[in-house]
Structures are given as structure tokens and as C-alpha cells.
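Figure 3 (text version): C-alpha cells given as input.
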């Protein structure tokens, strides 16, 4: 395994004891695109910070490409590329210089650094902006520059922390395409995100994390099939005093896998059974059905089943 975490734990003491990471065991295969998913504050960024030598663990071990990141941080950094959650491009340098100086920092000769920089500018469709400064770039272009810079020294593993945060839909799609292209260079990618669509689209395997612990780990397809439902109906009601009885009635319908009472109504996990929706509406109308939303089973559905709360809280 190119990334191996064992018993990883991080406790912050600044404002009382805050457990950010609580005993994570995780393995990532070489060449894999792996997603670490969860809501804000779940422990994703802290885990990545430990893996990339930016934070020390309270306990446990993190090994990247066979190197213990705590015992040999400088050596580990040669195998690691990092794109943090926020733009860290040097604003006093051009796009070319941001990548070129990174290459020099990792020991390349000037000709080799120039060649690698030119190659990356072409690969990420940035050649026309090579003399621009970071302040002149859109969020999507800046993110592509950060990815290009992070892999300039040919790391074995690239860590992307919330790579599409703040990007518009077009820039997000371009970023996804850039990440997929890293496979051709044999780079293992570990990304954190709270966008379930992103993880479903990009990742070979994912782990869902909450309160510093991994809740489940598998392929996106396997996790979605584990829910045992193809559709989720969310019912918002005006009258909520009879939620328990309403939930029981809906649970008894043919095709319903599970019905759960929620603060605003009922969430129904169901097979795509013909005629089920009219039955649900008929039963719920007696309680003053205010709104009904329908979605196909997604990774967010898996999260809701595991934690009982909205992923974006």
C-alpha cells in the first residue's frame, strides 16, 4: 500500500481537549484515486495535514511510499504533492515562475526545471497564461496551476484538500479532467471533499468519515448498493404530531425498504416500485404534505443512513 495509516489520532488542546482524528486505519493502493468524504469538521483536513507533514499526530503512524512521515518528514515530502484547500500560489511570481521555482526547490537543474515547467503548462492548458500573475487568474485556472505545481517534482502521491471548493460548475469539470489525467503519470491521488457527486465521479474507493472516525469504506457503487434502495423520498409535513404513526404506515407499503421520522417529516428509502409514489402521497396528505423531493440513491444517501443527519450540516 502506498498510503498506510494505523491508529492515527490527533487531539488539540488549545480550547480544551478536541479530538479531530480518532483512531483512523486506512490503506490506499498504488495508482488509486481515493476519496475521504465527510462534512466540514469531520477530520478530513487534519488527516491530510498529518499525511503531508504539516501536523504531528498525537498517536498512530502514517506511512507514505514506505516512509514514516513523522520520523522522516523531509524524505517523505519528496514523495508527496499537496494542493491545500486555499490558494497558496506566490502572488509575486508569474505562473511560469511558480512552477519553475518549485522544480528548482526539489533539486532539478535549470534546464530540467524549464523543460518540466513547459511540459506542465502545456499539459494543463496554461501556456498562454504563463506570464500572468495569480491575481489575474480565475479560481479554476489557479487551481490547475496549483495541481501542476504540486506534481512538478513527480511525487508518488498527490493530496487534494477540497479541490473544487469555490469553483463554478465549468471550472469544476475542468479540474476533474485534470485529476483524471494524473493516472497517466502513475500518480496516486487522495482527495478530501464534501461534494458527493465529485467523489462518485472521480474515486475508485471512498471512505466516509465523521467525528474523526471512518464509518465505512468501499467503492462508490458498493456503498450505494448497500443502502438497499434505489430512490429516496423526503416528505415535509405541516402536521408533525403523528409522525410515528405515519412512518409506520409508510414502512408497511410494498417496495419501501425503510421509513425514518425526521424533524420536518419522513424520509423514505424505497425500491423503484411502480405505483409506490401515489400511495405515499395519499397517506402523507392526511398530515398536510407540504413538499416532496425525490433523489436516486447516492453517496449522500449512504451518509444519511450512517449518521442520520444531512451531510452538509
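Below: residues designed for each position.
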Amino acid at each position: 500500500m502506498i498510503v498506510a495509516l494505523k491508529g492515527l489520532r490527533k487531539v488539540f488542546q488549545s480550547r480544551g481537549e478536541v479530538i479531530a482524528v480518532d483512531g483512523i486505519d486506512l490503506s490506499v493502493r498504488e495508482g488509486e484515486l481515493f476519496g475521504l468524504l465527510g462534512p466540514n469538521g469531520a477530520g478530513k483536513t487534519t488527516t491530510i495535514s498529518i499525511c503531508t507533514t504539516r501536523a504531528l499526530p498525537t498517536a498512530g503512524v502514517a506511512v507514505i511510499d514506505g516512509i514514516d512521515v513523522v520520523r522522516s518528514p523531509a524524505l517523505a515530502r519528496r514523495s508527496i504533492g499537496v494542493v491545500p484547500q486555499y490558494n497558496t500560489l506566490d502572488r509575486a511570481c508569474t505562473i511560469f515562475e511558480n512552477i519553475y521555482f518549485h522544480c528548482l526547490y526539489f533539486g532539478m537543474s535549470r534546464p530540467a526545471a524549464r523543460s518540466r515547467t513547459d511540459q506542465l503548462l502545456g499539459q494543463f492548458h496554461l501556456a498562454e497564461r504563463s506570464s500572468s500573475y495569480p491575481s489575474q487568474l480565475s479560481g479554476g485556472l489557479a487551481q490547475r496551476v496549483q495541481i501542476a505545481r504540486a506534481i512538478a517534482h513527480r511525487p508518488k502521491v498527490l493530496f487534494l484538500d477540497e479541490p473544487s471548493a469555490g469553483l463554478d460548475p465549468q471550472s469544476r469539470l475542468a479540474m476533474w479532467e485534470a485529476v483524471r489525467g494524473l493516472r497517466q503519470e502513475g500518480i496516486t491521488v487522495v482527495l478530501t471533499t464534501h461534494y458527493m457527486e465529485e467523489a462518485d465521479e472521480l474515486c475508485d474507493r471512498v471512505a466516509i468519515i465523521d467525528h474523526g472516525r471512518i464509518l465505512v469504506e468501499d467503492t462508490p457503487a458498493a456503498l450505494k448498493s448497500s443502502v438497499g434502495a434505489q430512490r429516496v423520498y423526503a416528505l415535509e409535513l405541516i402536521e408533525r404530531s403523528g409522525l410515528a404513526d405515519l412512518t409506520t404506515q409508510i414502512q408497511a407499503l410494498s417496495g419501501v425498504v425503510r421509513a425514518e421520522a425526521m424533524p420536518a417529516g419522513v424520509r423514505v428509502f424505497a425500491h423503484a416500485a411502480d405505483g409506490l409514489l401515489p400511495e405515499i402521497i395519499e397517506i402523507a396528505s392526511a398530515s398536510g404534505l407540504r413538499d416532496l423531493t425525490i433523489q436516486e440513491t447516492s453517496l449522500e444517501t449512504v451518509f444519511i443512513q450512517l449518521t442520520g443527519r444531512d451531510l452538509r450540516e
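Residues 3-79+155-224 form a domain with the Rossmann fold fold (CATH 3.40.50.300).
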